[in-house]
């Protein structure tokens, strides 16, 4: 008899050694159909594997993250099986599941688009045949013989420890693999090869270049179609593409990862900084500007020199014979500002804010547009406070976060509270106190959150906020981090009400995060159709004929005098063409002026989404758009 314990604690006895599939079937037919693999006492295994003794199990379906991985890795095998039938001389190397689907690397000449069509067709044939994934155990020597024609597999086998090696067969295709896999190819209902790219064996440019074939798969056709539509829309909205079309920013190989803000992008960045000053900081915050480069002694005190040096840009000052580090964070500099004075408890919370650019030595391969950069400026703040002020301050911050994301129409998606890790500094009671404060603040703010047990930094617990953009994609933005360590390292004090010298707690917080990255997110979220208040050009005036140029210029100055950003298009082109171009340039308001408008002192209003609003007095239009700017209306 084998006793099986289910995740909810319920138990079931089986006469004979049951397989995962039999266990799933004993619960429901639906679960048996959805089952992809099984976890037995924490170890993943195939559904046809008999369970020999009492065990705790979990049936894995596509709803589990690991289920998706097994499913997609199985699709990689399926694709390799198809490739091997069509191109017998191709050498398969590795084929893992990755975040955006799966890939398989082949040693082969580049695949042509028609090859890809053929591979997909062949995959479909193999799916229809419902070919089982069969596991076999063989010795290392047998494996070396089996894969003798594939030097890549041979290299991998040689690196394995002595003993039995598992292989998986799918029809004629055989692969070296730990598994587990879905029961048969028939499970893989929906898939698509998404792209082909070159990749070096073991990601080393000294090695042979292979063909990496990427794909995606789902257990439902609709999910695949939704995904493909999302990808198409995301490509249209790619901030690098729109940034180029709208002349917002550029990058250059001579400063990788450090975006250049062009005049129009700079207008947006300035508006964003204004926004940060007013809303992210706001009343009670003191803005400062601190040096970019510091003597390494500062980084030694803060601990960056020991733990973070690889991520910093460092240099040596020959004349003074000292090492210098460019700042990757503002915190240590703000500690020096606090340390300058002896503070009374009456001055707390003391909130120091700074948007100066920071530099981080991110790996070359990870850099992308505005979202993965080496130079960044944050809405960064360090709040020095007494322990009994934590709750109140966190509540204010959470309200602020809610209000700020609303302005950008970003939905708060997931909030994580990360608690004490195994390795932590300070006293357990201090941690408990801080964590209960964070929980209470979240509860009282009415926000739903998940607890990431043990995921806090070694110096304090934290709250992270992820938002959802217009495409439903998740972005990590705000972070609120308690820190008991840095104030101690810097020996900071304040005089408490009882006259005792105490060390303050520090909160590190950012709400938009890096403004570069936030701009990238905003470009994609709005697809370049920014709310009027932040649009680089807010109004374009279009003349019907040359003789109205003077009137157009007059309207322009009337609007510009109140700070609106206005252009005139007086080219000798048709109105239709000029309107269309203004719409392609994503300009919120397009004003057409001609005979009647000049006589009446009006403008004819259209918007970038091709809605004609008709004539309005210049004065009335101005009032309307200024109010939209002031209220930060989303267009
Ligand atoms: Zn495999
Ligand atoms: Zn900080």
Architecture overview:
The protein has 635 residues and is α+β, with helices and mostly antiparallel strands. The protein has four domains: 59 residues, Beta-grasp domain (Ubiquitin-like (UB roll)), CATH 3.10.20; 162 residues, Threonyl-trna Synthetase, Chain A, domain 2 (Threonyl-tRNA Synthetase, Chain A, domain 2, 2-Layer Sandwich), CATH 3.30.980; 244 residues, 2-Layer Sandwich (BirA Bifunctional Protein, domain 2), CATH 3.30.930; 93 residues, Anticodon-binding domain (Rossmann fold). The protein has an eight-stranded mixed sheet with strand order 16-21-24-31-28-27-25-26, with helices on both faces. A hairpin with a 2-residue loop joins β10 and β11. α3 packs across α4 and α13 crosses α14. The longest helix is centred in the first third of the chain and has 22 residues. The model has no long low-confidence stretch (mean pLDDT 94). The structure holds zinc ion (ZN) (2 copies).
Q: Nutshell version of this structure?
A:
By secondary structure, the chain is α+β, with helices and mostly antiparallel strands. It is globular. One zinc ion is lined by residues 329, 331, 382, 508.
* Residue share in β-strands: 25-35%
What is the 3D form?
globular
Which fold name corresponds to the CATH topology of the largest domain?
BirA Bifunctional Protein, domain 2
The residue ranges in which pLDDT falls below 50 over 5 or more consecutive positions are none
State the CATH class of the largest domain. Answer: Alpha Beta
CATH superfamily of the largest domain: Bira Bifunctional Protein, Domain 2
Structure class: alpha+beta
Query: Can you tell me the number of structural domains?
Result: 4
Number of strands: 36
Rg, Cα atoms, Å: 31 Å
Helix content: 25-40%
Give the termini separation.
67 Å
The DSSP helix count reads 20
Strand order of the largest sheet: 16-21-24-31-28-27-25-26
Bound compounds, each kind once, are: zinc ion
Sketch the major β-sheet.
8 strands, mixed
* CATH architectural type of the largest domain: 2-Layer Sandwich
The average pLDDT value, as a whole number, equals: 94
């Amino acid at each position: 008899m084998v006793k099986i314990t289910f995740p909810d604690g319920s138990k079931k006895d089986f006469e004979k050694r049951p397989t995962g599939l039999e266990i799933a079937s004993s619960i429901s037919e639906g679960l048996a159909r959805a089952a992809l693999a099984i976890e037995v006492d924490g170890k993943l295994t195939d559904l046809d594997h008999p369970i020999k003794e009492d065990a705790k199990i979990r049936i894995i379906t596509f709803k589990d993250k690991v289920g998706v991985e097994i499913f997609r890795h199985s699709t990689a095998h399926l694709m390799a099986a198809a490739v091997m039938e069509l191109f017998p001389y191709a050498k398969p190397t590795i084929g893992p599941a990755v975040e955006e689907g799966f890939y398989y690397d082949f040693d082969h000449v580049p695949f042509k688009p028609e090859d890809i069509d053929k591979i997909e067709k062949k995959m479909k044939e193999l799916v229809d045949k419902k070919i089982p994934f069969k596991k076999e155990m063989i010795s290392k020597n047998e494996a070396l013989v089996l894969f003798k024609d594939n030097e890549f597999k041979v290299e991998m086998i040689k690196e394995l420890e002595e003993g039995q090696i598992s292989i998986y067969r799918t029809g004629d295709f055989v692969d070296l693999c730990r598994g587990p896999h879905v029961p048969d190819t028939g499970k893989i209902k929906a898939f698509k090869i998404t792209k082909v790219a070159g990749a070096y064996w073991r990601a080393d440019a000294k090695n042979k270049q292979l063909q990496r074939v990427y794909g995606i798969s789902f257990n439902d056709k609709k999910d695949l179609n939704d995904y493909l539509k999302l990808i198409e829309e995301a490509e249209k909205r790619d901030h690098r593409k729109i940034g180029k079309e709208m002349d917002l920013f550029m990058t250059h190989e001579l400063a990788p990862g450090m975006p250049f803000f062009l005049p129009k992008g700079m207008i947006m960045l300035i508006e964003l900084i204004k926004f940060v000053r007013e809303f992210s900081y706001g009343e009670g915050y003191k803005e400062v500007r601190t040096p970019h480069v510091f003597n390494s002694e500062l980084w030694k005190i803060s601990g960056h020199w020991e733990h973070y040096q690889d991520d910093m840009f460092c240099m040596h000052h020959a004349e003074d014979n000292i090492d210098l580090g460019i700042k990757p964070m503002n915190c240590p500099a703000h500690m020096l500002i606090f340390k300058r004075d002896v503070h009374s408890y009456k001055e707390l919370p003391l909130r120091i804010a700074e948007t100066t650019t920071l530099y981080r030595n991110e790996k070359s391969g990870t850099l992308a547009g505005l979202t993965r950069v080496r130079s960044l400026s944050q809405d960064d703040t360090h709040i020095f406070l007494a322990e009994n002020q934590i709750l109140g301050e966190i509540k204010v911050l959470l309200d602020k976060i809610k209000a700020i994301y609303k302005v950008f129409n970003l939905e708060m998606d997931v909030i994580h509270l990360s608690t004490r890790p195994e390795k932590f500094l300070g006293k357990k009671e201090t941690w408990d106190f801080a964590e209960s404060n964070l929980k209470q603040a979240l509860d009282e703010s009415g926000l739903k959150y998940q607890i990431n047990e043990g995921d806090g930094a070694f110096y304090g617990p934290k709250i992270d906020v992820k938002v959802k953009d217009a495409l439903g994609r998740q972005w990590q933005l705000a972070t609120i981090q308690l820190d008991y360590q840095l104030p101690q390292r810097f020996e900071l004090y304040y005089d408490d009400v009882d006259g005792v010298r105490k060390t303050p707690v520090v909160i590190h917080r950012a709400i938009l995060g890096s403004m570069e990255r936030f701009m990238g997110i905003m470009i994609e979220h709005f697809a370049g159709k920014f709310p009027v208040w932040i649009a680089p050009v807010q109004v374009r005036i279009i003349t019907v004929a040359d003789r109205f140029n003077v009137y157009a210029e007059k309207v322009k100055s009337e609007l510009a005098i109140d700070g609106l950003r206005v252009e005139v298009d007086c080219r000798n082109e048709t109105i239709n063409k000029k309107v269309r171009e203004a719409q392609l340039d994503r300009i919120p308001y397009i004003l057409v002026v001609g005979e009647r408008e000049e006589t009446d002192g009006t403008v004819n209003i259209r918007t970038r989404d091709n809605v004609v609003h008709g004539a309005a007095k210049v004065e009335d239009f101005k009032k309307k758009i200024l109010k939209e700017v002031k209220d930060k209306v989303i267009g």
